[in-house]
Automatic annotation (TrEMBL):
The chain crosses the membrane at residues 7-26, 32-55, 75-93, 113-132, 153-171. This is Protein p34. The keyword Mitochondrion does not apply. GO terms for cellular component: plasma membrane. It is a multi-pass membrane protein. Belongs to the cation diffusion facilitator (CDF) transporter (TC 2.A.4) family. Its main location: membrane. The keyword Membrane applies. One of its GO terms (biological process) is intracellular zinc ion homeostasis. PANTHER family: MITOCHONDRIAL METAL TRANSPORTER 1-RELATED (PTHR43840). Signal peptide: none annotated.
Length: 295
């Protein structure tokens, strides 16, 4: 089991613990805002489970039916996360609506607030772990999980402050307003996750800094060739796919052109992790003078 899969598995346990703590805090206070916070943690559990399944599928090696591997499975996980976030937000809005027109009271339980604060601290610490691991392994599933968890941390902090103010002031509607704001924040988080996931499913190009590194390596390692053009990149989970046309002198032997391609591929694999390179060799009459000049 790889690092990403192990982290995702631990994330399930962490989210279950946090869910339990937040639900206890809601039971002690009766606060709809704390209920919304607990409901968001149910989504955390679901997203953690989805991440575990997606990472297991994405780790499968390429086969005859999937020659490019299963890396895109992580994007499907992120889409599921986005949908679950939207469902959670709708559920919170429903609770706010049902309680808005009825008398709603909650207990000023410091113990409940302290328990919720403890859950928030656990979430914040684990969010840092998820972001670091997700970026290191280029895992959309872990990053989506971390982004949602970050939203949970921010909204939990706001909810705690607001509920404390509602308890002190006795303004019961403030509790419901806070729950509604949590729902809006959750919706925004879901939109960002869905947007990034769809970009991956649509074969979005690699970030500009990564593309710059790829171009630099090609220019430095293509000595003997004339130029490289029609460079295309796409990212699928942790995998990066690179293809381009390499123009060489017409009289160059096939073995020499092949050696240049091998040199470029080795350099790209050393510079960019989990990269798959495809190079199409062309004679000099195909030069466009618009590609990557060879150093």
């Amino acid at each position: 089991m790889g690092l990403s899969s192990r982290i995702a598995l631990v994330s399930v346990g962490v989210s279950l613990v946090v869910l339990g703590l937040k639900y206890v805090a809601y039971l002690l206070t009766g606060s709809i805002a704390l209920y919304s916070d607990a409901l968001e943690s149910i989504v955390n559990v679901a997203t953690s489970v989805a991440a575990v399944l997606a990472l297991r599928v994405s780790a499968k090696p390429a086969d005859a039916n999937h020659p490019y591997g299963y890396a895109k499975a992580e994007y499907f996980s992120a889409v599921i996360v986005g949908v679950l976030i939207v469902v959670a937000a709708i559920s919170i809005f429903r609770e706010v609506y049902l309680n808005w027109f009825e008398a709603h009271a909650f207990d000023a339980s410091p113990r409940g607030l302290m328990i919720n604060a403890g859950a928030g601290i656990i979430n914040a610490a684990w969010c840092v772990v998820l972001f670091r691991t997700g970026r290191r392994t280029r895992s959309p599933a872990l990053i989506a999980d971390a982004q949602h968890l970050l939203t949970d941390v921010v909204s939990s902090a706001g909810v705690l402050i607001g509920v404390a103010l509602a308890m002190v002031s006795g303004w019961e509607k403030l509790d419901l307003i806070l729950a509604g704001l949590v729902a809006v924040n959750i919706l925004w988080s879901g939109w960002k996750v869905l947007k990034e996931s769809v970009g991956g499913l649509m074969d979005q190009a690699v970030p500009s800094d990564t593309l710059g590194r790829i171009r630099t390596v090609i220019a430095a390692e293509a000595t003997g060739a004339i130029e490289a053009h029609d460079l295309r990149t796409r990212q699928a989970g942790r995998m990066i796919f690179v293809d381009f046309h390499l123009v060489v002198p017409g009289e160059m032997a096939v073995s020499e052109a092949h050696a240049i391609c091998d040199r470029i591929e080795d350099a790209l694999e050393a510079e960019v992790a989990d990269v798959l390179v495809n190079i199409h060799v062309e004679p000099e009459v195909k030069a466009k003078q618009l590609g990557i000049p060879v150093l």
